[in-house]
């Protein structure tokens, strides 16, 4: 499903993700050929710079990030930009390190440091050169996963004495949380794993599922009622008394629907929307065991949208499902008896097995975001990228805790679904022709390049820089605009979408600028079109 935001051929019509408030993260030294963009705040003489953002989170989400992560407005914006620029670097290093890779995560209050773990000291130099901090560990991520798999196979013995099992990248161990550590340690012996690879942590955590019990009487859907938009976070009812939250809009062929938690309803269960009008039925559902997920097929009266949130807290568009790394901020929007609101936290661990009274669910994310009863199935995003749907947890929004999230890509794969995303109509064909300046080239997978001509350009006036990147339909290239500050370069605007078309705009002072192109995935040719601010005299000459 495609959604048009503006005519991409018109110069400056869309300004993509750009965070321009003063930032606390320092710029790095002038980068080499494979270096990463630096984060820095830029202020023009006498006034702050401003820009529009097609992917800027709504005010309700930004306020929740500040509240839940203990940040001020500038720090919250800095964190989001750091996450945007560092995540592709983590992905590229994962590919380069191969079986030596032992995980990556963001640390620091604004996520300013990317840590990449490896089993080989020889990798430290390339990790540092890429702008990350290396950590040498004993076990690769693949070995940690093998240890966890053995513990998962011993689930009947462990489930009675532990609440969760997860891979902890920071300690390079598999952690088992338990209220009875001694009994848990005895049960581990039967799993035939190296004791040094496992840590038992004392925990009083008691995870629970997060559906609410609220009786509802369906009212049907008379023909006189206009079609209703389905948005992530809305309440819905499965059967006559189970209230959960809509996750993300999906399609399966021509059938429209949405994903939610599996424990909300078994296959065949009828669903009712937030307005008490008939909605659809659960087409498939899994719980417990391999997951806690389901998908609901909608009737024709509902129109699924690539959106999450509500009018009061703001709507966030869904652009894709790129997996955020540990330490990234995540926000959920879900319906509870207290209303629909944003709640945020960070991804603390992936690949967790959680034990509920109803059974064990494998391979979910642990997050520090809080959740209410009724939030089961709620959509969780990292900026504009879908991460998963809420399963359960031990959290509440007064005392904190842990919320467990079923990864979205696992759900899409399990049922053969397609995520409904917000995409320009022009994304598949590109429309960067017609810019006054242009350059072409090709990128290899994971490659970075500076333009124009591997160098930069200078402008003597304050004005708006517009950039447009058109790539091969199978590629996913990202576009950065950087400004030179002495011996360093600062990233001042970013366009990162999962499509092969990127567009950004930046109002900036005089100086030296350059574009950085990064292949997040795929290889192939590209066209970069751009404008440079011109003195008024030049504009008058061109006008005659």
The chain-level mean pLDDT equals 82
| Rounded Rg | 24 Å
> What shape does the CA trace take?
globular
Give the quaternary arrangement of the chains: single chain
Helix content, binned percent: 10-25%
The residue ranges in which pLDDT falls below 50 over 5 or more consecutive positions are 1-54, 424-430, 537-544
Spatial strand arrangement across the major sheet: 10-13-12-16-17-18-15-14-27
Number of helices: 8
Instruction: Tell me the structural class.
Output: alpha+beta
Please give a structural write-up.
This protein is of the alpha+beta class. Strands 10-13-12-16-17-18-15-14-27 form a 9-stranded antiparallel sheet. Strands 21-22-23-26-25-24 form a 6-stranded antiparallel β-barrel. α1 packs across α2. The longest helix is centred in the N-terminal third of the chain and has 25 residues. The N terminus and C terminus are likely disordered.
How does the SSE layout of this entry go?
Layout: E1 43-44, E2 47-48, H1 59-69, H2 73-97, E3 101-107, E4 113-118, H3 124-129, E5 133-136, H4 141-153, H5 155-159, E6 164-168, E7 173-178, H6 181-188, E8 198-202, E9 208-209, E10 212-213, E11 228-232, E12 235-238, E13 242-245, E14 249-252, E15 255-260, E16 270-273, E17 278-286, E18 293-298, E19 302-310, E20 314-317, E21 329-336, E22 339-356, E23 359-367, E24 379-382, E25 385-393, E26 403-407, H7 408-415, E27 418-419, E28 437-443, E29 448-451, E30 457-459, E31 463-471, E32 476-485, E33 488-495, E34 501-508, E35 511-521, E36 524-530, H8 536-543
Parallel strand pairs: 4-5, 7-8, 11-19
Antiparallel strand pairs: 1-2, 3-4, 6-7, 6-22, 9-25, 10-13, 12-13, 12-16, 14-15, 14-27, 15-18, 16-17, 17-18, 19-20, 21-22, 21-24, 22-23, 23-26, 24-25, 25-26, 28-36, 29-35, 30-35, 31-34, 31-36, 32-33, 32-35
Helix pairs in contact: 1-2
